[in-house]
Design brief:
By secondary structure, the chain is of the alpha+beta class. The protein has 18 helices and 39 strands. The radius of gyration is 30 Å and the shape is globular.
């Protein structure tokens, strides 16, 4: 960060600056500027953003929006065809105790390759697929990812016209990898009563195409207009409408070789994470040096644009004082004896064959579901089952043998079902219950699914089918990929199997480890009693609220609000509830009311187990968490307390004191010093449980920045937490200690995570429920609950 000195400025035409740039002026920064022309007030951070954008774009950087700038003309070649990786910086401004500060960090983005020989869309097509062009649905899908809404120049200067800037329409592609217009030879239109192809038309004009078999690209050219006579006798242009009254869009199709791609355009939807991480994973000292180089090459310290509004960037980065909290204590059991877990790295620990509590010690009927399509051999599947049974036995969980369900040995029916990849939920259900019927079993206790490699995302895939089967039948499932089975015999394979065994324990409501803050330590390593002395002094519920927005182009996937809550003194057992939010959710009273319903649901479950809570600490993540905190304070805590008052007679007998803390990622990055030390000698990041609550924070608001985990080399950025309401009177150091300890409570990880474990689980619940909706389950109405199957509740975590 660089300190900015704010000086008196001359008159600024703010209105003209805002008219010329599409910028959202609804910022939460404090302070305003007055437009000398109109008297309107605008947040000064908007003006600073405009000045930074003007300077960076004039000094060798492309503007990608949202404060991201990429270096022009210095791409890094990558293995993926048609793509480059562009390096640049993220730039953001905030007002803090040290003054106006500019946050600068490195960034890398995948971009469509354009320089050199690749200047037109046809050049890109040839580089990807050869001169034949895209043929298969997979080719078309790749082309769609690269061209979706990209900026192009229509090349007409060499053919008697003027070049024209345009944007590629998103309506070029149909579903399942099909082009709207297959080629210039096939695409036809009516001209002077004759139907001719685009290739023929170009040839008749004296400009034959080199690649008539390449697709033509649709360009949206606005609306079609028609002149009409008004009542006053004057002609006016009005949009042309069809028979149904809809406005008619003007559409033109341009051959691929007549479209030049503009440079520096982000290639969205293509996973380049591995290569980008390799570029950015450098030692913190090297990363800091690269940031300083970008500041120097952009000459922003002597920017005329900033000077015009009275700002000057200090020449050196800002030094801040941080607090480092001691790591929490972790406990597990081995043969009934409580053990304290340790580790050789900060933020990580060793946990082999140990869990704190087992909820379901036996699962007799275990079924293997093979969806690998023959990619995993029967021997590999059998070896996996044997290894998993041994790993579960080590933590006192007995799994039945699906290859000998009777337990008598010898030949006989097996609890194994095989379905092809991409099968439907009905096919899976039929095969699973068919295998159960052959073995005389009513239903399985656990299904071990082997699937081909696929991400647990909202795309329709085998993982989604398995989870919808779980949702419909109430049978717990656990998935492993074919790629994981291929690592059999390695240390990584053993770690995978042990992690799956621990997840099975958590799925059925077990506790893998108890986490307590260092302040709750008892003498002689005695078992813990309270998570933290402050939470143990009164009935306290820790709550996470996560908001996930609807899919951008799929209205079948609704927005979702999930609340997760701790229900025991060790904060190791959880309950959760979800409500469907409005499809076009905004930071308004409608979303706040849904949040109030979800939080009230989980607090009611807390009250059923522990009695009414007196103190509630809520961490708000997901959509809008980093936006208008003043508006959030007006809406969300009030909605939660209103819903609690409505249920007062049933579950709450008094006032609940609420502390409400939005948490979000930030652009702030701090680098270790000799005094702070590092997490370990390899990654050299700042240590876990590091908090910055002065210098970088707001001059008056209660907030802090936190690093809770040990990340990969040089890649830790801080999370931002602002306390917008503190009725519970939680002291700042206590709140920071709770956040640090909760990062160690994520059940399926042996390392600290970025956010409180509750927030991760709330996010997982949102994703799991939206996944089953994507795969065919009907979504309830706005504000309605969307529970899992009743057999998957009561402390179980089916989303793990």
């Amino acid at each position: 960060r660089w300190r900015v000195q704010l000086q008196a400025a001359t008159t600024i035409d703010v209105a003209e600056a805002l008219r010329s740039t599409a910028v959202d002026v609804a910022r939460t920064a404090s302070g305003e500027l007055v437009d000398a022309c109109t008297g309107e007030r605008h947040h000064f951070s908007t003006i600073i953003d405009l000045a930074i954008k003007a300077h960076m774009t004039q000094n060798g950087y492309w503007d990608l929006g949202s404060g991201t700038y990429l270096v022009q003309g210095e791409p890094v070649r990558c293995r993926e065809g048609g793509l480059d990786i562009l390096l640049g910086v993220d730039v953001g401004v905030r007002n803090c105790e040290a003054g106006m500060c500019l946050a600068v960090d490195l960034v890398a983005k995948a971009a469509v390759r354009t320089p050199g020989a690749l200047s037109t869309v046809a050049d890109l097509i040839i580089a990807l697929f050869g001169e034949r062009g895209p043929r298969s649905p997979k080719d078309v899908e790749k082309l769609k990812q690269l061209l979706h809404r990209k900026n192009v120049t229509i090349l007409r200067k060499d053919f008697g016209g003027a070049d024209e800037f345009a944007e590629i329409s998103r309506k070029n592609f149909k579903d399942k990898g099909r082009l709207v217009a297959t080629s210039a030879s096939d695409m036809t239109f009516e001209r002077n009563g004759e139907t001719i192809s685009i290739a023929t038309y170009q040839e008749r004009k004296g400009h034959p195409l080199r690649f008539p078999h390449h697709p033509v690209i649709r360009i949206d050219a606005g609306l079609e207009y028609v002149e009409v006579m008004g009542e006053d006798g004057l002609k006016r242009r009005q949009p042309k409408r069809d028979a149904d009254g809809k406005k008619i869009e003007k559409v033109i199709y341009i051959p691929a070789e007549r479209l030049r791609l503009e440079e520096g355009q982000h290639a969205r939807g293509i996973n380049m994470a591995d290569e980008i991480i390799r570029l950015l994973s450098v030692r913190p000292s090297a990363r800091h040096g690269q940031i300083v180089d970008h500041v120097a090459r952009s000459r922003i310290t002597s920017s005329p644009a900033l000077a015009a509004i009275g700002l000057q960037l200090a020449p050196r980065s800002l030094a801040v004082v941080a607090k480092i909290f001691p790591a929490p204590l972790l406990f597990a059991r081995n043969r009934g004896r409580v053990l304290q877990l340790g580790g050789h790295k900060l933020g990580e620990w060793r946990q082999e064959n140990q869990v704190f509590r087992v909820a379901a010690p036996e699962h007799r009927n275990v079924l293997v579901l093979d969806m690998g399509g023959g990619r995993a051999s029967p021997d590999a599947v059998r070896n996996y089952v044997d290894e998993l049974r041994r790993a579960c036995r080590d933590i006192d969980i007995q799994l039945g043998d699906p290859f000998d369900p009777s337990g008598r040995g010898g030949p006989g029916p097996v609890l194994v079902a095989v379905v092809r990849p991409d099968s439907s939920v009905g096919d899976v259900t039929h095969e699973v219950y068919g295998a159960c019927q052959r073995c005389g079993v009513a239903k399985p206790d656990l299904v071990l699914a082997v699937i081909k490699k696929t991400q647990a995302s909202l795309s329709e895939n085998d993982y989604g089918v398995i989870k919808r089967f779980q949702h419909q039948t109430g049978v717990m499932t656990s998935c492993v990929t074919v790629e994981s089975l291929k690592t059999a015999g390695s240390a990584r394979y053993r770690d995978i199997v042990r992690a799956i065994a621990a997840k099975i324990n958590a799925k059925f409501g077990g506790v893998n480890r108890a986490v307590v803050s260092a302040e709750s330590a008892r003498p002689n390593g005695e078992p813990p009693v309270d998570f933290h002395p402050w939470t143990g002094a009164a009935p306290t519920a820790l709550v996470a609220v996560h908001v996930t927005l609807a899919g951008a182009y799929d209205s079948a996937i609704p927005s979702m609000v999930t609340a997760a809550c701790t229900v025991d003194k060790l904060m190791s057992q959880f309950r959760f509830a979800s409500r469907v939010a409005p499809l076009d959710a905004r930071l308004d009273e409608h979303l706040a009311d849904v949040i109030g319903l979800a939080v009230c649901d989980v607090l009611s479950q807390f009250a059923e187990i522990n009695g009414p809570p007196q103190l509630v600490v809520a961490f708000r993540t997901g959509a809008f968490a980093g936006e208008d905190h003043r508006r959030m304070l007006e809406l969300e805590p009030a909605a939660i307390k209103r819903r609690i008052r409505e249920k007062a007679s049933a579950h709450f007998d008094g006032e609940v004191h609420l502390t409400y803390c939005p948490m979000t990622k930030s652009r702030v990055r701090v680098f270790p010093s000799r005094e702070s030390g590092t997490d370990n000698d390899r990654s050299m990041n700042v240590p876990p449980s590091l908090f910055v609550d002065s210098g970088l924070t707001h001059p008056t608001a209660h907030e802090f920045f936190v690093n809770t985990y040990a990340g990969i080399q040089g890649c830790n950025n801080l999370q931002h937490c602002r306390v917008i309401l503190n009725e519970a009177q939680c002291p700042p150091d206590v709140l920071m200690s709770i956040v640090a300890a909760l990062a160690y409570a994520y059940p399926k990880a042996n390392r600290a995570v970025k956010l409180p474990a509750l927030s991760y689980m709330a996010s997982l619940v949102c994703d799991a429920k939206r996944l089953v909706i994507k795969n065919g389950e009907e979504a309830p109405g706005v504000g309605d609950d969307f529970p899992f199957h009743p057999a998957l509740l009561d402390g179980k975590l089916p989303f793990m």
